[in-house]
């Protein structure tokens, strides 16, 4: 785990709310080795999601640099970032954010619409991703026909279908019961250990954090190691 | 095309709402098809008008007749290549509702003047030989199931016969057609000589003259020369191009083009409001989904394209159905009422214009929601979700 996949150097993020300046992240430094599984914990408003947004190229720092996979995100245009995200980052949200009008298979296929793959190839890859998360038999089901845990598995399949190196998970088990949450976390562990995915997971749940290799505590815009896995 | 499934599924997200919008587009384009065809029927004569043909009518009114003696004087005018004449008969077949154009003409000079009318040579010769002979257009023959050899009685509404009778009987000697789909062949032509001999009054007159300007001659100068010849006579003339004549004839029914334009304008303005509202609502409802798409890597142009395509798709679904049904109705009308409303026709130009309007209306209705989707801030939208 010595090769660094992502690096944040002196990153600050300040939001202007009316006349007030709110510094969410303060001169933050972080290195994420390839193949790591990090849990980021902390109270609401501590900057966890902002950190995730910066790593995913959804937001830009007010100061400092964010480098992921050798790409310096702060200097990229919005359209470059869109393209970069489609091939390098997989996002997993708390509320799954599947498109209700599409079946599980077609939801998983979505990121592949941005590639040059043929329709047949897209379906093949989406089917493999669904197989990895154990939902091959639900391919033709719509999100409303799935349980919460199944929806999150579909969302994970969508996140990995274009084979990104970094998975960013924002409270992935926040909407699930304990048992289902543990299933999802075990699945993330499999993706980390067997498929080599680097995972950064934001969570409030200490038990969820136990599934990660290490935990960081985010508070008042700074990070500190919580405990080693 | 990769996004078609996504666009299609999104378009039908709220089935009732989309169905109602598609229905309103359908009605608008059905109306467009019918009014276009109707407008075409009314201005058909204008569209097929020949720039080299001039029409000479009485200066006061088209219904006033001109002396037959003008024929030779017009023919002798410099710049005139050929002359013929026609008159309005105004009769009906069997019932008053079966009205169509009937014209007593001089067969040879009339058909020389209108080379676009095609008639088999032997039928034309038979027509010329028979004083009570007549020829009809294919449209008319189809409408009433007439065939060559039939005897056709026409009830006169103006021209009583010298013997007091109002029934004029004609032998159908030929059926002509016109290659130009814009022109109507819902006409009946019969021998002027028979008309002249049998009518009870106004002998020695014709309704109007038609002349062809010689090559190289200036139609305006020719028209002026003719009108000058008959100035200060009991029957002063007004000579105009065939197009202007057709236009003035059409204007007797009101400004059809303006009426059609106003109706369609109102319909399409309403349509834009309805479909624009549908698209705005649809985009507002799925802001978070659009944000997810952007998160996955869908760029600004893709977002703009997806929403605009959805708007255009809704327009095309309703519009093509409306235009299609309109085309069928017009075909039916042309068959059933071709004689009463000759030249009713949904032209390829109108169809192409309709499709262009669908795409244009789709873009107009979808552009603001599409820009909203394009400019969406992912972080704000996800935070609101």
Basic shape of chain B = elongated
The total beta strand count of chain B reads 12
Domain count of chain A, please report it. Answer: 1
> Which quaternary structure do these chains form?
heterodimer
H/E topology pattern of chain B = HHEEHEEHEHEHEEEHEEHEHHHHHH
- CATH topology of chain A, by name, is Rossmann fold
Approximately how much beta-strand content do the residues of chain B carry?
15-25%
Mean pLDDT of chain B: 88
Biggest interface, CB < 8 A: A-B, 27 and 25 residues
Q: End-to-end distance of chain A, in Å? A: 14 Å
Largest sheet of chain A, in brief, is: 6 strands, mixed
Would you identify the CATH H-level superfamily of chain A?
P-loop containing nucleotide triphosphate hydrolases
Largest sheet of chain B at a glance? 6 strands, mixed
Structure notes:
The complex is a heterodimer of chains A (229) and B (385). In chain A, the strands form 2 sheets. A 6-stranded mixed sheet of chain A has the order 6-7-8-3-9-10. A 4-stranded antiparallel sheet of chain A has the order 2-1-4-5, covered by helices on one side. Chain A has one domain (36-57, 89-228): 3-Layer(aba) Sandwich (Rossmann fold). With 229 residues, chain A is an alpha/beta fold. Chain A contains 7 helices and 10 strands. Chain B has 385 residues and is α+β, with helices and mostly antiparallel strands. Chain B folds into 2 domains: 4-45 and 254-384, no CATH class; 48-253, no CATH class. Chain B has 14 helices and 12 strands. Chain B has helices spanning 4-11, 15-47, 70-75, 107-113, 121-129, 138-144, 192-198, 219-229, 242-250, 256-285, 287-296, 300-337, 348-375, 378-384; strands spanning 53-58, 66-67, 80-86, 101-105, 117-118, 133-137, 151-155, 167-178, 187-191, 205-206, 208-213, 237-241. In chain B, the strands form 3 sheets. In chain B, strands 4, 5, 6, 7, 8 and 9 form a 6-stranded mixed sheet that branches. In chain B, strands 3-11-1-12 form a 4-stranded antiparallel sheet, sandwiched between helices. The radius of gyration of chain B is 29 Å and the shape is elongated. The two termini of chain B are 29 Å apart. Chains A and B meet through helix 2 of A and helix 1, helix 11, helix 12 and helix 14 of B.
């Amino acid at each position: 785990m010595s090769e660094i996949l992502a690096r944040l150097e002196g990153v600050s993020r300040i939001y202007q709310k009316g006349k007030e300046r709110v510094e969410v992240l303060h001169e933050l430094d972080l290195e994420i080795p390839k193949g790591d599984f990090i849990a980021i914990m902390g109270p609401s408003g501590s900057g966890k999601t902002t950190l995730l947004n910066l790593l995913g190229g959804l937001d830009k720092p007010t100061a400092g640099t964010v480098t992921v996979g050798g790409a310096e995100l702060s200097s990229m245009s919005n359209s470059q970032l869109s393209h970069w995200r489609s091939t390098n980052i997989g996002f997993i949200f708390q509320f799954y954010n599947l498109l209700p009008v599409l079946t599980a298979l077609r939801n998983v296929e979505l990121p592949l619409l941005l590639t040059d793959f043929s329709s047949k190839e897209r379906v093949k890859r989406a089917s493999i991703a669904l197989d990895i998360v154990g939902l091959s038999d639900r391919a033709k089901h719509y999100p409303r026909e799935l349980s919460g845990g199944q929806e999150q598995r579909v969302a994970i399949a969508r996140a990995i279908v274009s084979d990104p190196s970094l998975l960013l998970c924002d409270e992935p088990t926040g909407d699930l019961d304990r048992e289902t949450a543990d299933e999802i976390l075990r699945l993330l562990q499999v993706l980390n250990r067997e498929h080599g995915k680097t995972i950064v997971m934001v969570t409030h749940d200490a038990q969820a954090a136990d599934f990660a290799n290490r935990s960081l505590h985010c508070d008042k815009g700074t990070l500190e190691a919580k405990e080693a896995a | 095309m990769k996004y078609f499934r996504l666009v299609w599924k999104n378009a039908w997200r709220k089935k009732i709402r989309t169905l109602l919008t598609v229905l309103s587009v359908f009605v608008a384009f059905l109306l467009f098809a019918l009014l276009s065809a109707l407008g075409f029927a009314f201005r058909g004569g204008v569209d097929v008008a020949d720039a080299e043909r001039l029409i000479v009518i009485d200066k006061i009114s088209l219904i006033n007749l001109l002396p037959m003696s003008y024929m030779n004087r017009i023919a002798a005018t410099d710049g005139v290549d050929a002359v013929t004449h026609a008159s309005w008969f105004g009769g009906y077949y069997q019932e008053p509702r079966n009205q169509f154009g009937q014209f007593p003409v001089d067969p040879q000079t009339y058909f020389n003047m209108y080379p676009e009318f095609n008639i088999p040579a032997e039928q034309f010769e038979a027509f010329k030989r028979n004083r009570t002979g007549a020829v009809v257009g294919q449209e008319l023959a189809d409408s009433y199931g007439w065939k060559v050899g039939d005897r056709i009685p026409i009830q006169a509404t103006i021209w009583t016969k010298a013997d007091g009778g109002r029934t004029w009987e004609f032998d159908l000697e030929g059926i002509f057609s016109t290659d130009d789909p814009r022109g109507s062949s819902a006409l009946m032509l019969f021998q002027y000589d028979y008309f002249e001999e049998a009518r009870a009054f106004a002998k020695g007159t014709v309704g109007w003259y038609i002349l062809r300007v010689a090559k190289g001659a200036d139609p305006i100068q020719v028209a002026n020369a003719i009108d000058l010849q008959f100035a200060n006579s009991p029957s002063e003339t007004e000579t105009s191009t065939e197009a202007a004549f057709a236009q003035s004839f059409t204007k007797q029914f009101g400004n059809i083009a303006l009426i059609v334009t106003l109706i369609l304008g109102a319909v399409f303005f309403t349509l834009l409001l309805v479909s624009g509202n549908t698209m705005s609502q649809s985009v507002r409802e799925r802001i978070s989904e659009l944000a997810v798409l952007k998160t996955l890597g869908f760029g600004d142009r893709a977002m703009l394209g997806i929403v605009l395509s959805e708007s255009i798709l809704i327009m095309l679904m309703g519009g093509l159905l409306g235009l299609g049904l309109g085309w069928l109705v017009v075909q039916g009308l042309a068959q059933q009422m071709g004689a009463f409303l000759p030249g009713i026709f949904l032209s390829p130009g109108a169809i192409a214009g309709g499709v262009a309007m669908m795409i244009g209306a789709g873009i107009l209705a979808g552009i603001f929601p599409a820009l909203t989707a394009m400019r969406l801030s992912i972080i704000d939208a996800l935070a609101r979700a």
